[in-house]
Specification:
The complex is a heterodimer.
Chain A (H helix, E strand, L loop, with lengths): L7 H4 L3 H22 L1 H9 L21 H6 L13 E6 L9 E5 H17 L7 E4 L7 H13 L2 E3 L6 H11 L3 E4 L1 H13 L13 E4 L6 H11 L4 E8 L4 E7 L6 E3 L4 E6 L13 E7 L10 E7 L1 E2 L11 E2 L4 E2 L4 E3 L2 E3 L1 H8 L5 E12 L2 E10 L8 H19 L4 E5 L14 E3 L4
Parallel strand pairs in A: 3-4, 3-5, 5-6, 6-7, 18-21, 19-20
Antiparallel strand pairs in A: 1-2, 7-8, 8-9, 9-14, 10-11, 11-12, 12-15, 13-14, 16-17, 18-19
Helix pairs in contact in A: 2-3, 5-6, 8-9, 10-11
Chain B lengths: L2 E9 L4 H11 L4 E8 L3 E8 L2 H10 L4 E12 L4 H11 L4 E8 L5 E8 L2 H10 L3 E2 L2 H5 L2
Antiparallel strand pairs in B: 1-3, 1-4, 2-3, 4-6, 4-7, 5-6
């Protein structure tokens, strides 16, 4: 595959020059926020922060964090820096509880956002020859329009089909010769399986799709393999990452080597912090990512807490880009448990349980404090009756699960086998953790 | 030559045995013999019943983890040395028992052993060959 770089000047800039550019943009941003956003002006005053005090990018740690709650508290336009006549677009997050978070874009913001997305798409083979079907739902959500404008900047032919209506999706793919899909990983897989089900009528050879630009939800390596195998014919997919508070998709994305997501660092300054203490962690450490959107003006974002857990690799990539790469999201800080000083994510336990066929897919994590020490219990449902012949088999299974989880978490845990269907089921976001330490 | 035994995975929670046995009672299934062994967290309930296939389905439908396997039922004289004699037969041929439980009959001077060994076929032929009474499915279910 080609190894194209959309903006070599920015994407391959020597690190020293890049950090100098970040510092320059950071100072301009601090000055801009001080003058144009009351929320930041007040905070700067309280903390005695002025733009001229920034001598290196690490000085950013003097600025207090901005959170999703700050956005909700100032709903809808409290953190906008410009009057509405300069805002050309508004997006909003779903907001399952309370007010949604509303973001506004100036014309310049949209230009930057398009550039950010264009880089990620171009990096994995999108060109003006590309025919791309955008299967994200259009609307207040940033996914569809973000990819739309980025791909349009490259000159691709866009089919804004939105989500749903499987038969029409597949018909357009065949008839238009669509070669690229923008979708969530699960929808991309769903479409591939739907295409396979209709093979008698429309063989898989009638599709030309070869690239998936997947985002808006996590994609495990297992799922990626499944998607690529389902489409077959050399289908290749990459992940991208972003959130509406930071424009939308376009913060980072994988290149063809898929060894981390390249961050558009000339636009985003990323830090990794300890989510409990707020302390900035050393380079390479795993923690919560905090992002400052250096070029965003409609609703500036300083040290925004993403609540996403990852780590950042600053080495130059095989593709030649000098931009830092973030690891796929490892977990959410809201879900993180601290057990005897070790950070534990339910997703880690989940990945350890994959492939153990004697137990069901549901699990529960129970945390207790006994004799001043935290104990972690993982409860799983036994479904394989053939193990009941011997106690030894059940104990072996327990030991196997224990060892797999321990090798990932690095701490001892207790594995409890429970009867099928006794662990609570969730239709929405699953509550896997029962923390009894403070009860 | 063999009889069917149900093994049911049971969590160590008070009332759980009552709930599980109520499920088979409701299906009008009669228990011939049972045994339960436990660890701190869970136990395995082993049952010999009059309608094993039905019992298995009923318990599975109730969401329980169940297995139905062949075990050996042996009749021995209900008198001192009866059991020791049977064990000696197995010991002589180096057949090791995984688990076993016993019950006495209502109206004869017989006692019965339900046992699970590594090699059912070998054990059955040794026990049969030594003059001990091997029970059939019908013998047990109709007791």
């Amino acid at each position: 595959m080609r190894n194209l770089i959309f903006n070599p000047e920015m994407e391959c800039m020597p690190r020293k020059a890049l950090e100098a550019l970040q510092l320059e943009r950071l100072k301009a941003l601090v000055d801009y926020c001080d003058k144009n956003v009351e929320f930041y002006h007040k905070r700067f005053k309280e903390n005695n922060i002025t733009a001229d005090k920034f001598k290196s990018i690490s000085d950013i740690s003097y600025i207090p964090f901005t959170t999703k709650e700050d956005l909700r508290d100032t709903y809808p336009f409290g953190m906008f820096s410009v009057p509405n006549k300069e805002i050309v677009r508004i997006h909003a997050s779903s907001g399952t509880t309370g007010n949604p978070t509303v973001v506004g874009y100036t014309r310049e913001d949209l230009a930057h956002w398009s550039e950010q997305v264009a880089r990620l798409c171009y990096a994995v083979g999108a060109t003006e020859e590309t025919i791309v079907q955008i299967c994200f739902g259009y609307g207040m959500f940033t996914g569809a329009l973000g990819l739309h404008y980025g791909l349009e900047k490259i000159g691709a032919t866009i089919v804004p089909v939105s989500s749903g209506n499987t038969d029409k999706q597949l018909k357009f793919m065949r008839d238009f010769g669509t070669d690229t899909i923008v979708a969530t990983p699960s929808y991309c897989l769903f479409l591939a399986e739907a295409a396979r089900e209709r093979q008698d009528e429309f063989p898989m050879e009638s599709y030309r799709v070869k690239l998936g630009l997947l985002g808006s939800e996590g994609c495990t390596p297992e799922m990626r393999e499944q998607i690529e195998n389902s489409w077959g014919n050399g289908f290749f997919s990459t992940d991208n990452y972003g959130m509406s508070e930071l424009n939308g998709p376009g913060l980072s994305g994988e290149c063809i080597h898929r060894e981390g997501l390249h961050i558009n660092e000339d636009h985003f300054l990323c830090e990794i912090i300890d989510s409990a203490s707020g302390a900035v962690l050393d380079r390479g450490a795993t923690g919560e990512m905090v992002v400052t959107a250096l070029t965003k003006r409609g609703i500036p974002m300083l040290r925004y807490r993403t609540k996403d857990i990852t780590n950042i690799n600053y080495d130059t990539c095989k593709c030649g880009r000098t931009s830092a790469r973030m690891h796929k999201i490892i977990g959410r800080s809201d879900d993180m448990l601290k057990i005897r000083g070790v950070n534990v994510f339910p997703s880690q336990v989940e990945s350890a349980l994959i492939g153990i066929n004697e137990i069901g897919p549901h699990y529960q994590i129970v945390v207790r404090r006994q004799n001043y020490a935290d104990n972690l219990e993982v409860r799983v449902e036994l479904i394989d009756g053939t193990l009941l012949e011997k106690y030894g088999e059940l104990e072996k299974l327990q030991a196997r699960i224990h060892d797999r989880i321990k090798s990932i978490l690095g701490i001892d845990i207790k594995v409890t086998l429970v009867e099928p269907k006794t662990i609570e089921r969730f239709t929405g976001k699953a509550q896997r953790v029962v923390d009894m330490r403070n009860s | 030559m063999f009889i069917k035994q149900l093994s049911v995975f049971v969590e160590n929670k008070s009332g759980r045995l009552a709930e599980i046995t109520a499920i088979i009672a409701k299906a009008n299934i009669d228990i011939r013999a049972l045994s339960i062994a436990d660890t701190t967290d869970f136990g395995i309930l082993r049952l010999v019943v009059d309608k094993p296939a039905e019992a298995e389905k009923t318990l599975k439908d109730a969401g329980l983890t169940v297995s139905l396997t062949n075990v050996i039922a042996v009749g021995i004289p209900d008198k001192p040395g009866g059991f020791a004699n049977a064990m000696q037969v197995l010991a002589d041929k180096e057949i090791s028992v995984e688990y076993m439980y016993a019950f006495v009959s209502r109206d004869t001077d017989r006692a019965y052993l339900i046992m699970r060994v590594k090699d059912n076929d070998a054990a059955a032929s040794i026990l049969g060959g030594s003059g001990l009474e091997l029970l059939s499915e019908d013998d047990v279910y109709k007791m």
